[in-house]
Every structure is written in structure tokens, then in C-alpha cells.
């Protein structure tokens, strides 16, 4: 520290917040932080922009969201400055009122119910289909790479494009699906106009979108299982089902646990499929938690920022709980994750 | 020392980047200061029907340049269904908002209440304002100030395909009961459904609600009326129309499905307003314009009633070019422009003086709709009027798709309104 050059202070300024961040995490005495700063200041300076960006794009909205969920903020009482009109904020802190309202009211729980049905059925179906396809494509069949390419297509097309395409297919009067059915003498199906059919339709699209990811991930897992194990099992007289049950499944565990966790989180928050296909309709039949939170914030009038944030925070809490429980279960089974 | 230089350079680079982010990007100002000549850019958000109306409006808007050569008009068509929220988002954040917006009549008091609109009293925007129809001007007023210039006024009627009617040998229904028998006969003779009823937009529900003597709210008595006996009956009527097969409906893509079905002659009737005329004439069934018939909406048990609607041009309070925006709003609502629009699109003018022009006075659609508008049901122009549709459409769709009963649907709507309108009965 004695050889402090004039520029040292500048360097400190750049890494300042970072040093504090680290010392909070490790709980080391201040001396250690200082020493770390003086030896690794350049590294700190290099990561500083990333940390600043993350703090700005993740930290700030998160804290602001939590704060708003504790107020009664809506479109009418937030601060706005429009040209000559300066309107100050008049919303108030209301404590946990929004949470009590959401958790005791009917709407949140019924939406949560459908969100769970949606998540479980989507993840289960995509996983089953992905596993089946991965197993098929892991064999040596003619045109294997062509099949792989085709099956990955839903993933390669931007999500909103395929969802719009599905919307056209589903159209009750002019959609291709109903035209095909009519050719077979079947009456038009109200794909998106009947509450039950709409639920089925959105799940179908999400499964279609989700299968490639599952398939690719599981195919990778399958290829890492050594072929000798199958040979040995065959020698011992194990049939196909036994080989699948006792070699393939355990061999895939590390991959499948991860993809199931990821897929659950993604599906739980799968905004575009629901929003672009049905906007949560008909009525509110296909509304999941995120689309309903969006509706509060952007579609109802006056836009209800407080309630929307409340739902957002509740979604975060639910997913964190899920991840924690999932992790614990896996750890009990001896899985390192 | 080398270290020091590097660090300084890094910090300087960061500083420059941050400064670049923070610099003011919006400076398309201009205005009339000094020379008295208008200049700059005016961005206009139009919400008219894409594919038919938008072409005419775009051309008319860009012709503003002929009068004010230094002003550039940026025409943006925002789908009607999204415009209300899109404008509120942009207006509140202060970035990306237009200078002038085509604001639906129910949105105008809401935007004004939120402080997003510039008051227009005493500005050039309100030239010859005594010429405006009283009904059209009503929605532009909020707390004693004027926040919009009436651009078009409208109501609803039954559009019917004369050819199909002739084929089935039926007359235009005047009441809901007649509508049901006519629909049944059309179905029997031609196999086509009688009426297309939009199930994804509650505006199409209003004439049935009014027909039973119901209304959304009673602003004078500060009472929510949508869930009273007449309101419940309104819900029952539409549900019955759909259940009995007299009307076909959709919970998604209603506008496109309705227009496609009607234009292709796959359905005999639809309820619609002047905004659909230009688009309908583009359909293959209506190459011969005479095939399109129009009649008042069928009367319910309490009489006949259609909603009065329309659009105003409103100026964003945060506009950087207020003077040119006022002039643009005036130009777009002038008698001359309205006459052009009326002639090309059959939209109803808001100025009395336009109705006596020969082109307009002989337009079949306008001569039909003018008396309809005169006795159309006016909604209360309170800020919350723009908020009444979101809860209504959810319940309306639920009723039509059988997820809830008419009674429960009406009640849920009423409860949502009472939450919205504090202290109302």
C-alpha cells in the first residue's frame, strides 16, 4: 500500500462495490478483502461491468417488484411526468395485504391449480416422448440423421412463429386441422373455443415445442452409456425391458433429473404458448400464473402493478420451493447436484 | 505506472459508455417558434382496420405535408385491440409515445384522467368546434376541458347478405324472436348459420344488453347495473342465441373469423358498424355492393338499442411538437378531410356541415347510420368507462362457452365493477 500511485485510487473506485460484495459473502476480516483487492484488483475491475449489469437488470427489478407487491400501486397513483404534467406518486405501503388477498382469494388458487396440471402434464408427456424418440434414434436405423434433423425442427423455429402457425391450424372455421377432419367426415372441433379443448390444445403445442430439447438432451445421455453394459446384460439373459429399466434409466439419471428440473421451470412460466394461442381464454380457462400476472400489469385497466408484482413474487417463491425440495429428494437418493 | 494508465483508460472507457447510454435521444422537436411556420415530425397512431381503412388514412395523413411542407407525418397503424394499453405504456414511461393518437371515445376520458393528454381549449386543434355534433363532442370533455377532437362517430346495425336472404326467402329480422326464426329458416334452406356473434369482444354484446333495458352502469345514480335483472336477461339472450344455433360464435380471432365468414358468404348476418363497411365491400360476395344490406339491430324485449361509439384525435401531453400536433389534429378532423374519408370509407363524419355535402348525403351507409347514431345509447364518459370492458369480456366469453351461468356471469361482472368504481352501489 505504501507504493500507492495516484491512479490506485481510481482502480479502487472501480472495484469498490465488488470488494464489499465479496467480503459480505465470505465474512473475512477487512484486511483480507484489502489484500485481495490489492493483488487481484485488475480481475475485480474486469468483472465489475458484469456485476453492475446484473445488478441493474436482475437485482433492481427484483427488489422493485418485491417493494411494489407491498404497496397498492396502480396506474392511477404512480409517479409520472408527461410533458408539462408532473404527477407525484401517491401509492401507499400496505404491508402483506396483497399476499393475504391472493392466497385467500379464489383466483390465485384456481389459476395455480391449472398451472400445476399444465406443468405436470406437459413435463410428463414431453419427457416420455423425448425418451421414446431418443431411444429410437439411438439405434442404427436408416436415415437416422435425417430423422434427427426433422425432430429438432420445432426447436429451431422461433417459438412465436410456430405458435402462430398452430393458431392458424387450430382455427375452427378455416384451420387446416378441421379441414382434414371434415375430409374424414368428423365435425369441426372447437380447438381453442371450448374450455376443455383449449386446455388440450395448449398442452399439445407445448409438448410439440418441448420434445426436441428433451430428445437431444436424453440422446446425449444415452450415448454416454457404455455399450459393454448392454452386452453384459444380454449375456446374462436380460430382456429388452430389463435392459431399459436397469441400465438405460439409471444411466440417464444425471441427465434426466436436470432436464426435468429445467423443463418444469420453463413450462411453469411458459408465457408465449398460452398468451399467443389463447390469451388465457376462452374466459380464463387456460390462464396460467404468469399470463395472469401479465394481464394485471398490462391488460386490465387501471393497470394493477401491485397485484401483478405479488403474483410474480409468489411464482418465484413457488419455483424456489420446488427447486429446494427437488434437490433435497435427489440428495437423499445419493445424487450429487 | 503502466498499471495506472491501464486502469485510467478502463475507467474512462466505462465513463464514456455510461454517458452514451444516458444521452438524450429524443429531440425531434421543432414547432413554430420564431418563423411561425410549423416544422418537425408528427407521429400518429391510427387504429383503423388494416387492409382497407388504413390505406386511406395513411394517404390523407401524409397529405398534411402539402399544407405544411416542413412537417413530416409518421403514420403508424396500431391494432385497435392493443392500442389502449400500448399507448398507456408508452405515455407513462415517456418514451415511444406518439404525438397524436386516434383515441376511442371511451379511452379519451381515461387518458385525460391519467394526465396523458394535452388540453386543447384555445388551441388551433378545435377550429370551428361549434360545427361538431353534440353527441360526438361529449366524450372529449373531462372536468371542464377538452381533450380530443371528434374524428368519426358510429353505432351498430345488422349487416346481411341479400342473396342468402333471397335464397332462404326471409325478411330482415326486427326482433330477437324474429332473428331466431329467420336464422332457423336460413339454416334449413341453405345450411349456413344465420348470425355471426363475436364472442371475444363484449362490445358486440352491448346491443343485446340495451335491448333488454340493461346498461353497464348508471353514472348519475352511481350504481352498477350490469348485474340487475335486465343485465342477466341480456346474458341469457346471447347464450340462448348461441345454444339454439341461431348464432355462431368464437372465443378467439373473432374479428377475422367474422369478416372472413361474412365476406365469403358463409354466414348470412353479422352485427357490425361503419368501420367494417370498407373491409366488407372488399369481400367476394360484395363485389356488387348492392348485395350488402343493412338494418337496425334487432330489438329485445325492452326495445331497440345500439351503442354509440367513435374516435377522437387526442394529443399526447408529452409531445415535443405540440403546435404541429394541434394543427395535424385540426387537419384530420376538418370538414374537407372528413368528406374524403366519408366518401371513400363510408365512415360517419362528426361535423354537421359535412352531412350536407352531396357525396356524403347520397352515401347509402351514411344515410342509414346517421339516424341510428342519433338515437344510439350513449355511455357515461367517466374515466372508468375505458376499464369496463376487460371484466365484461371475460365473463361474456365464459357465459357463451358454458363455463358459467348468465346469472353468475352478470354477478361476477358487477362485482368487478364495484371494485373498480369505489363507493358505487
TrEMBL record, chain A:
Bias kind Basic residues: ranges: 21-32
GO CC, alphabetical: plasma membrane
Alphabetical UniProt keywords: Cell membrane, Membrane, Transmembrane, Transmembrane helix, Transport
Membrane topology: Multi-pass membrane protein
One GO BP annotation of this record: transmembrane transport
Residue stretches spanning the membrane: 41-63, 116-137, 149-169, 200-222, 255-277, 305-326
Predominant subcellular localization, coarse grouping: membrane
PROSITE patterns for the chain: ABC_TM1
Protein name in the entry: ABC transporter permease
SUPFAM superfamilies given in the database record: MetI-like (SSF161098)
Lineage: superkingdom: Bacteria
Similarity-based family: Belongs to the binding-protein-dependent transport system permease family.
A Pfam entry, by short name: BPD_transp_1
Polar residues bias locations: 1-10
ABC transmembrane type-1 domain sequence ranges: 112-326
Places the protein is found: Cell membrane
Region (Disordered): 1-32
Highest classification ranks of the organism: Bacteria, Bacillati, Actinomycetota, Actinomycetes, Kitasatosporales
UniProtKB/TrEMBL annotation, chain B:
UniProt keyword Signal, yes or no: yes
Signal peptide (UniProt feature, chain positions): 1-19
PANTHER family: MALTOSE-BINDING PERIPLASMIC PROTEIN, MALTOSE_MALTODEXTRIN-BINDING PERIPLASMIC PROTEIN
Annotated InterPro entries: SBP
Coiled coil: none
Organism phylogeny: Bacteria, Bacillati, Actinomycetota, Actinomycetes, Kitasatosporales
Molecular-function annotations in GO: maltose binding
Entry similarity comment: Belongs to the bacterial solute-binding protein 1 family.
Keyword terms of this UniProt record: Signal, Transport
Pfam family, one: SBP_bac_1
Domain of life: Bacteria
Protein name: Sugar ABC transporter substrate-binding protein
GO CC annotation terms, alphabetical: ATP-binding cassette (ABC) transporter complex, substrate-binding subunit-containing
GO annotation, biological process: maltodextrin transmembrane transport; maltose transport
